[in-house]
Structure formats: C-alpha cells, structure tokens
Amino acid sequence: MDSKLFPEGTQRCSFGQFLIWMAFLFVIFVWGVYGATLVLYNGIGTTGLDNIFGFGAWITFDLAVIALGAGAFFTGLLKYILKIKQLEKIINLTVIVGFCCYAGAMLILVLDVGQPTRAWFGYWHPNVHSMLTEVIFCITCYLIVLIIEFVPLILEQKQLNKIPFIHALAHNMHINMALFAGIGAFLSTFHQGSLGGMYGVLIGRPFAFREGFFIWPWTFFLFILSAVGSGPVFTVLVATLMEKITGKKLVDFKTKSLMGKIAGSMLCIYMFFKILDTWAWANGYLPSVGLTFDQMFHGFIYGKWLMFSEIILCGLVPAIMLVTPSIRNRPGLLYTAAILDCIGVSLNRYIFTVQTIAFPVLPFESWQLYYPNWVEYATSLMIIAFGFIVISLSYRYLPVFPLETKLNYQSGD
Amino acid sequence: MQTIEFKIKWGMVIDIDKCTGCGACMVGCQVENNIAPMTKKDPYNYVQALTWDRDDASNKTKTLTCLSVYELTNGKAFPDHETAYLPRPCMQCGHPACVPVCPVVATEKTEEGGIVSQIYPRCIGCRYCMAACPYHARYFNWWDPIWPEGMDKGLSPATSVRPRGVVEKCNFCHSRYLDAKNEARQNGDDPMNLADGAYTTACADICPTKAITFGDLNNPEHKVYELARSKNSYRLLEKLGLAPQVYYMSKREWVRKLGDNYNADGGGHGAPSNSHG
After folding, report:
1. Of B100, B125, B236, which is closest to A130 when you measure between CB atoms?
2. Which structural domains are found in chain B, ordered by start?
3. Spacing of C-alpha A162 from chain mean position
4. B212-233 residue pLDDT tens
5. What single-letter DSSP state applies at residue A404?
6. Exposed, middle or buried by CB within 10 Å (0-12, 13-18, 19+), for B210?
7. Domains of chain A listed by start with CATH number
8. Chain B: residue nearest A369 by CA?
9. Which one, of B277, B269, B227, B233, lies nearest residue B251 by Cα?
10. With contacts defined as CB-CB under 8 Å, which chain A residues touch B63?
11. Which of B69, B35, B95 is nearest to B239 (CA)?
12. Is ipTM beyond 0.90?
C-alpha cells in the first residue's frame, strides 16, 4: 500500500502489520498523555514528588536519556570532524536516537517545571552563575541542531527527493553538516557537563558536592565522560533491537564493534577519574564536614550496593569488556557490555538525583523514601513510546541505514 | 561565591530551652503570609473532581508552612530521656546554597538586611533551589491554593498570594520590614537604623514563651547582638559554610551537638532519634 514510500531497494512488513505495531505504541503513548494532562491541569501534586524530593523520577529519566543520547554528538564529532569514515554506516541512527532522547527530555521538562509557560525566562532573566541556565541554553539550542541534522534525512525520502529543489537542499545541508556537528559537539559537551555541575555545586548537599577546576566541579567532567562512554553503545543497542524486531541486518558488526571500542575507551578514562573522585570525596571532603562514607548509605534502598554496582559491575566490567578486542568482537558479549554500560550511567544519574536529596544533612532528620507514582511512570513511558514511533516511521520510510540493501538483498559480502 | 555581608543583618536567635513546641509560630506564619490550608476538594477544577482528591494537611511532605518545628530527643531511655523543639525558618544564609543555582534569578540576596528574597512571578518552579537547601526551608505549591469560604476574608492585604507551581520560602515577613521603614520615615527617623523591636516577624511576635528574638545581628543596641554571641549559641550545619543568619541557643550540650555533624568523637550523625513536626 505504501511501498512506493520505502527507501530504494528495501522491503518492509505489510501496512496492516505496521498499523498494529503503531497502534500498540499509540496506546502506551495515550496513557502517558492522560498522565501529562493531569499534571498540567491539576498540578504536579498529582505525582509522587514532594517537598523533600523536588527532583525525582523525571529528572533521573531526563539525565539518563540525555546521557544515552550522547551518541549523536560524539559520533557526529568523530565522523564529521575527525573523519572516521566507518561511522557513516550508523550516523543517521545516532541522530534519530539523539533527537528522540532530547525531544523526550524537553517534553518531560515541560511537565516537571511548575510554570511551563515561564520556561523562556531562562533566556529573559538568565542567572549566569547557575549551571541550570547553561543547561536550558544548550539543550534548547542543541535540539534545534539535532532537528537540522535530522531534516536532510527526511528530505532524502525517495518520493520527496524526486523534487529537484528538495534534492538540492538535502545535498547542500549534507555538505555543511560538519558545521552543525561542530556546533552540536560544543553545545552537547557543555550541557552534559553542566548537568553534572548542577549536582557538584550543591554546597548544602554533602553527597553530591565536589571541589573542581575553576568554576567547574569534578562532576562536570565526569558527566561528559560517562555520557560519551555510554551514548555510542546505546545506539548500537537500538540498532540491534531494530535488527531483532525487523529480522534484517542493518549495521555491519565491524561498525558496532568500532562504536563499542570508542565507548569502551571513553569509559576507561571515565572509570579512572570516577574512582579517584569517589576516593577523594570519601576521604577528603566528607570528613571535613563531619561525615563518613558509611553515613552516605542507608538500608537496602540507599545501600552501598547501588554505588558498587554502578562503579564495578556496570562500570569497570563493561569498560574492560569493551576495550578487549577478543571480548568486544563477540556479538553476545558486546551487547552484554553495552547493556551493563547503559545501566551504569543511568544508575549514576539516579544516585546523584535521588540519594543526594534522600541523605538527611540535618543530624536530627532521618532518611526519606521516595516512590514515583503511576503518573511519573506513564509520562516516562510516553516518551519511550514516542521514541519508538519516531524510529519506526524513520526506519519504514527513510534511508536510515546505508548498508541495508547490501547486507540483506545482495549476494556476497 | 563569598559570604555576602551587609551593614544591617536581620537575624534570629531561637532559645530552644524556652520553646514548648506549641506550633503557634507556624500558625502565625501561615496567617501573616497568606498560606492556604490544604484542602482535599477543589470546587473550581472539574477534572480534579472527576479523578481523585488532592493531598490534605495530613500529608506533611506536601504541606506548605515556610516554618517547621522539629522534635529533638537525646535518644536515651527513661529517666534520662529528654526532648526539645526546634523551630526552623529560612536561615537567610550569608552564603546561600539556593541563590546561585536559580536559573532565572528568582531568588536573590542583594537587599540591605541580608534577607534572601523569592520573586514569585519569576519563579519557573524547577525546584533546583529546594534540592540545594539542606535545611528544607523551601516549599513548593503542589496544588492550586484554595481558601475555604469565609477564610478568604481573613487574607492579609500586605502579602501577595502565590499561584500553584512556584517555590516559596520564609522572607522574615518582608512586608513588615517595608512597613517599619515607612513608619520610621513618617516619624522622621532613619529607616536604615531601626530601633530594636520596630521590625519583627510574625513568629517572633506570636511566640508565647518569647523563645524567638528577632533583630539586627550587627547592631549592638539590638538584643540579638548579644544573644548570638553568647557561649550557648550555635548555628545549624556551620561546617558546610553556609553562614546562616538564624542562631539557636541551648544550655544543653546534646541539643547543641545536634546542630552539626561530628564524625571524630562518634557523637555525630544519626545517633539520636527524631521526628518531623
């Protein structure tokens, strides 16, 4: 029915099958829209957030998807600026995944701020001392960059591309893409860092506070490194999931392995500094404010196992796996390392968001528990459904994977 | 950022040994500052009526008070058991954690007197300041404020009401400061050199045991000047370097020790139990 719209030389499932898949995603999306409506109409009181946990599941979700979406800027940087040609096999997907992650984070932020119609105040009354101001600047600008990077791919759609003007426009945008990749890398580096800086500057929160370099606390650099250490393999996981769902080969393993190598190298650097930072925090800063490492953890929910899982099981282990060629070159092990890596960075964002606030700084207060309610889950799932919808539509109608025809429909290599 | 100093430094000294934990300060604060009571029903919101109720005052984690009274105990069994109450307004820190983090300059410490302001029409409700404040002195308007019929007639004309979705905090009853300065001008006095007691907060006014003393910490003619410098005075979490302008005093050592974390002598964090009032 819609086969004329498919990318050149490819096959897709029937339109009916596609509609059923989209309907399934749409149901989840609508559930989230219902939750979002309640939040916008009745108030944020609808959620599980409270005066202790002003930040919760939404901020954790935002930070995690922004870190995992880092594949877009980092791969763009390597492909367009450092000219690593191999990455063109997956660059389109990194842009789409990045777009979904950032657009999703922005949508969640619309719900999370109490007065979303005042969101533009970040530009009108900016506080140059606030890390969050920098995040507002860079995230909004970078989303525009991602849209600019996504547009040429849409223009390359088979039928659209037949129009000479659109063809020329797409071609010219491609030629200048290095410029946007450069701007994107700049913006993204800074806001990934500022998201970490947001926690590091909290002088009143010993769990998160860090010394640093000039105006940037160490968390600024750690968040950049952890994002580039996980974003590329998240894209690999998305590509692999798409392969499992569609039953086709979309990206050659050589490219996936290269992405794993890139993420693994960055993850190794990150782990080195993360362990140093944690050690210095536990032995230097905490005693200086009358606290000990043990006091930073409590019971099972806030236990040390969280931090050790993050640093060892989901940090050191995938880092070693990804930099070791014999492990990385086995698909099963590459994907396992990638999953651990992505869990690790998400866990890091969760710990910095929730445990920082849960720790009672006043000696006469006690640890507080936070339970996100269905509204926060539903709206977060809405964003995931949104991502699936965008990727499904892109896969069906846009030439996302340059190697798809070669890997599936042509004989030989 | 260095500690911000002013010629006038409004501050409080709260004598914990005098506090009975009656909660009058909380009530006085709510009335003075037009803080709406928590109501389950919202008669103006039909969507709310179709779904489920809002939080009422029984949910302390969503209640808005600006000033909270904590119950402290020494953690010992009878007959050595002792209790104390600690009212906690905003500390108006000299080196505030909340001010530099606000992305839209909705909270400042720039006015003479050193009160940390909150600009409600500019606040976007991101709650970053709440995450920054270790004293939990900042509160969020989770629901639309509603005054049950009749109660709206008791609203103070001096204080603006706030919409849902913004953060608010104690501002040492700032409108009373403006009134005191105006009165001084009318009487031909210097508004920058107010007499002790010319400007005071609602919580200090209402306290039946006079546990809260308010005044200029830099002015030797004000009672707080001496009190803040007494040997039994201390501030909460001094080690963090936030330089609060609210002092506490108690003759009991265990009360004073609960003001900060101590890891060296084992008497620090988490030892005595507590509850949130």
Report:
1. B100
2. 1-277 (3.30.70.20)
3. 34
4. 999 999 999 999 999 999 999 9
5. H
6. exposed
7. 49-370 (1.20.1630.10)
8. B61
9. B233
10. 51
11. B95
12. yes
